[in-house]
Write a structure and sequence with these properties.
The complex is a heterodimer. By secondary structure, chain A is mainly beta. Chain A has 6 helices and 26 strands. Classes of the chains: A mainly beta, B alpha+beta. Chains A and B meet through strand 7, helix 5 and strand 17 of A and strand 5, strand 6, strand 7 and helix 5 of B.
Amino acid sequence: MLKRMKWLYRCASLFLLVLIFVPATVSGAGQIPGDCNNDGIVTIAEAQSAINMFLGLTPVASCVDVDRTGSVSISTIQKVISSFLGLGGGSGLPVNVLPVTVNGSLCSSATSAGYFNKPCVSVTVCTPGTSTCQVITDILLDTGSYGLRIFKQALNVPLTQMSVGADELAECVEYADGSSNWGPVQVAGVILGNEPAVQVPIQVIDSSFGIRSRGCRHADSSAANAGFTGILGVGPFAQDCGDTCASSASNGNYYACNGTGCRGTALPLASQVTNPVTLLPTDNNGVLLQLGAVPLGGSPSLNGSLILGIGTRSNNSPAGATAYPTNSAAEFTTTFNGVTSGSSFIDSGSNGLFFSVPASLLPDCGGSNSGFYCPATTELFSAADTGAFGSPSGTVYFNVGNFNSLTSTSNNVFSEVGGNDVAGGFDWGLPFFFGRNVLVGFEGANSILGSGPYWAF
Amino acid sequence: MKLKHAIFYSLVLVMSLGSNRWANATLAGTAATIDTDRQALKAVHRATTPHTGYTVQEIASDAVAVREYLSISGVVFAVSWAGNVQPDLTQLFGSYWAEYSAAEQKVAREFGHRRRHVATNNIVVETWGHMRNLRGLAYVPSLVPPGVSIGKIQQSETATRIP
């Protein structure tokens, strides 16, 4: 009897191994069947255990029977094995991980010419509540903003337009470099990594929509124009505007548009363009951005990970990091060269370290690279970072190299890019992330590091 | 007949330019124009702060705080702002708007930057910051009173966002 069971087991296992070569129709959303310890990974032991349930050798567990059908089907086993082999959802990564490439394969060459230190991810965008989805790459990963924005030209699944009464909701987002994004606000099903889809208001960037507001008079018209196909804001706030837009129609961000034009409108927090990570059922208290070190002189590209959640799984432990609370604009304090600025921030969407120093300390490059620093040799500096309310404090070391020399190579990723910040603040751009785990703690959410908003590293 | 027309339209043009300057003048305008700005921006007066050589008047709308820097001789030589969006710069820049607008469109786009510097013959405009706190400072170098440091204003006296 036992022998017969073993034979059956072997046959079934062989059959299953054959099955895995059939392309799996695994949806990106939902709990991974078979991931019984909820760590985002299906191990060989978990796959074996699921097969045992399929064969009726052990009781059915809900972590395998995620559809609650009462049994484990062959298609479920297919998903379990695909996940184990790294085929589940296409990535084989833990459920809460988005690969990041800095000037790598996730960045489009059509938008990246001359754009160094550009961190890109991909997101899956779906018609809300359906499995009609598309994967969009060349999404700039930005800890300096909040919410997802994608150029209309890149979207080919229908989304749901948000309305204000009989009017259509639109938004103008301005950036500090004078650029802006204009377009309608629509609800999308957004899948990050292999997390469940969240239904979230996003901005569809479309400069031809309605009549643009004054702040968006020069709104970017194309991805090539903007330098990205989309932008994913995962900074420490949920909404891009917040209370100001909830209470005032004259907020300058949100507009109600109809055939005759667009007028300013107040908008409840829940309707504002929202950082989709904050809406996940779990892994919603922050993010961890892991990018490796970059050697002096630079690299052609760099791979890393955006890991969703802080201390929610084995892969996003904040052990060893110090949390620096921020003010209500995601700012904390940096003291450098004797100057203290309370409006310092950490921004993966800035492609250098931007701060002010006298020319005697770091000379400007001049010419077409004016605004960047060009010391004769690479210099090591330190600055002190302090939480927005006076503690804690820590020292950060960074290098500044000769920008002219760096960018005359074929490399695209540099740790030692420094540039002038016009007003004495400190913008810790992408080089800050190289070789350092940086965590973004979301407003009002808790982790073992405390309550957000905070930066931690 | 044609000459008369030309003279007439020239006069209209000069008058409209002049009246435009008075209606909107802020940079290079008098203290009274700060109140014009306040009304145009649907803002309230928040504070008047004396400094050595100038006075700072702060006004704030729902979306953005604005500071205007008034010299002892009564001329607005700089404005700064902070907020979710930029204020209506056509209002704040007055007669310098056209010059600025033409110049800003010629500034080459630099991807990955969160700052911009636009300078013309008569006005310098710096913007910096990030979402929820976009900041800026504009000044007319020729109107900055002797002994007043724009660098010092930029470091520590520009407008701060309404919390």
